[in-house]
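User: Quick sanity check before I run a bigger batch. Here is a single chain. Can you write out its predicted 3D structure?
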Amino acid sequence: MFYKLKVHPDSKQEKALRKGPDSFELWVKAPAERGLANIAAIRLLSAQIKIEPQKIMLVKGATSPAKIVKIRD
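Assistant: Done. Predicted structure follows.
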């Protein structure tokens, strides 16, 4: 399964908003450098959908706020 994410790095608080059945908008405290925001976004998404972070793989958008992730089996 694939999820579309819109990530807002450097936020004051971490929160997730489900926009649809396969899309989320995420606010993370981590900065958008060295992949820190990506890691924080994956952790926040994993908590929201109740799956281990290791099963989430970033497919597209490593340097963009718009990302696509895949849930591995």
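The mean pLDDT is 96.

User: Great, the batch can go ahead then.
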